[in-house]
Design a protein that fits this description.
Length: 127
């Protein structure tokens, strides 16, 4: 079994910053955290950011480009999401996704490309 544990969410004011972390543990051989998604109440889970295993490529949703930065520490099998200039519309539960059999140069931006999900961390941005 693979466990993904997200942390770093919270309640902040608009314009603030937060840094999310996602650590993978358990039977993680050939399983890597690769991206962040979010889900607001009444909405489907949507892509936020993804990063390649070799840390050479990243992709972002248009709504977060220029404000969010994804990074990874492969030694700790952990990915991060630095969120700056937060807006009320960023309010959601943020999920980390991991997958097996990763191509080192690829980024994965669809929900159905992921095999494992964390429990989510709540991010609430007040206006």
């Amino acid at each position: 079994q693979v466990q993904l544990v997200e942390s770093g969410g919270g309640l902040v004011q608009a314009g603030s910053s937060l840094r999310l972390s996602c650590a993978a543990s358990g039977h993680t051989f050939n399983t890597y955290p690769m991206g962040w998604f979010r889900q607001a109440p009444g909405k489907e889970r949507e892509f936020v950011a993804a990063i390649s295993l070799d840390d050479g490529k990243a992709d972002y949703a248009d709504s977060v480009k220029g404000r969010f930065t994804i990074s990874r520490d492969n030694a700790k099998n952990t990915i991060f999401l630095q969120m700056n200039s937060l807006k009320p519309e960023d309010t959601a539960v943020y999920y980390c996704g991991a997958r097996n059999l990763v191509a080192v140069h690829n980024v994965y931006v669809r929900v159905d490309e992921y095999d494992y999900w964390g429990q989510g961390t709540q991010v609430t941005v007040s206006s």
